[in-house]
Amino acid sequence: GRSVHQIQSGQVIVDICSVAKELVENSIDAGATSIEVRFKNHGLDAVEVQDNGAGIAPEDFETIALKHHTSKLSTYDDLSALRTFGFRGEALSSLCALSKFHVITARASDGPKGTRLDFDMSGKLKGTSVIAAKQGTTVVVESLFYNLPVRRKELEKTIKREYNKVLALLNAYACISAGVRFSVSNQMPKGKKSIAFSTNSNPNTKENIANVYGTKTLLALIPLDLKFEMDPSNRPRPTQSARNWSTREDPGSREVSIVGHISRPVVGEGRQTPDRQMFFVNSRPCALPQVAKAFNEVYKSYNITQSPFIFADIKLDTNAYDVNVSPDKRTILLHDQTTLLENLKEALAELFGSHDQ
Ligand code: ADP
Ligand code: MG
């Protein structure tokens, strides 16, 4: 039978995208400068993420996959600082319940040896064994949803679309992560391993973009650097899930800046490439459909036909938004979105006006 744990833990891991997102964020949190994502059969057979980060300390082996265990912070106050991606301790626990899951980890002090960790479905450490390994952590997620036939079937049916979605997401992580080398590959059951994309350990986002989208893409780009003010007192009433944020008295800073790289509004140039739009809030990749719409509306007013390249990182006070509104933290609630969108459109039009076309 299906345990309560199995059903509850469906939340943070809903598809291949959330698997890759959670594992890559863990690698970044661990200070990795090199992250390799390996899909097998587009992720249906396996998603493996290998990093060269700090590794996992032996005293944490027992707890890492238990529900709500996190080594990352202990007080709600820390939540606003958001120095790390993770803070809920849910990803590994969910993966134990939803996949065939194991971890290989080694710390600098371990020499050429590491430890393989196996867990049961509830996240309890089942066994450890010594294995050759370099410093860092490899997390292996095999046969996602193997024990949930309906979700497995659905995943199999949508895997092509899902794979494109996960590549777009990984593009965003690779582009925003200066100093981190990314390599993403896929291996079909009887085929060769093929590299989807890779980046070098670049000092800045521009070179990451060149690695991912080709150097030619850079030629069409102009720097994005907009600044304006918002009214941080414009907040929705505190919701249940956001109560630890929204009830804060401190309104925070009013300054907003939007930095990055975007294509010039040139008519008839380039081709239709809808996966070239990446949005971030304080350097976290996230879905911001309203912001995307605002950008695209401004481009439309220039009568361009192709979809523009947009790499936009919105920098704003951590009190000006909630990340806690959805389990996967992809959806971000901007408290004063209306003002932000108005200012954004105005500033963009001004920017485009000042460039030769
Ligand atoms: P969270 O990221 O919210 O802490 P997770 O379930 O994603 O929760 O991870 C649980 C714990 O496992 C982390 O707090 C961390 O201690 C450890 N961990 C997971 N992935 C890695 C990794 N790639 N490198 C080092 N430690 C890791
Ligand atoms: Mg995590």
Q: Any guess at the CATH architecture of the largest domain? A: 2-Layer Sandwich
Q: State the separation between the terminal residues, measured CA to CA.
A: 64 Å
Low-confidence runs (pLDDT<50, min 5 residues)?
A: 1-10, 74-81, 236-248
Which fold name corresponds to the CATH topology of the largest domain? Heat Shock Protein 90
Q: What's the helix-strand series? A: HHEEHHEEEEHHEEHHEHEEEHEEEH
The assigned structural class equals: alpha+beta
Shape: globular
Radius of gyration: 21 Å
Helix content: 25-40%
The CATH first-level class of the largest domain comes to Alpha Beta
What fraction of the residues are assigned to beta strands by DSSP?
25-35%
Protein name: DNA mismatch repair protein MutL
Organism: Lindgomyces ingoldianus
Question: Summarize this, please?
Answer:
With 357 residues, the chain is an alpha+beta fold. The protein has eleven helices and 15 strands.
Tag the structure with descriptive keywords:
single chain, alpha+beta, Heat Shock Protein 90, Ribosomal Protein S5, domain 2, 2 domains, 8-stranded mixed beta sheet, 5-stranded mixed beta sheet, disordered N terminus, binds adenosine-5'-diphosphate, binds magnesium ion, DNA mismatch repair protein MutL
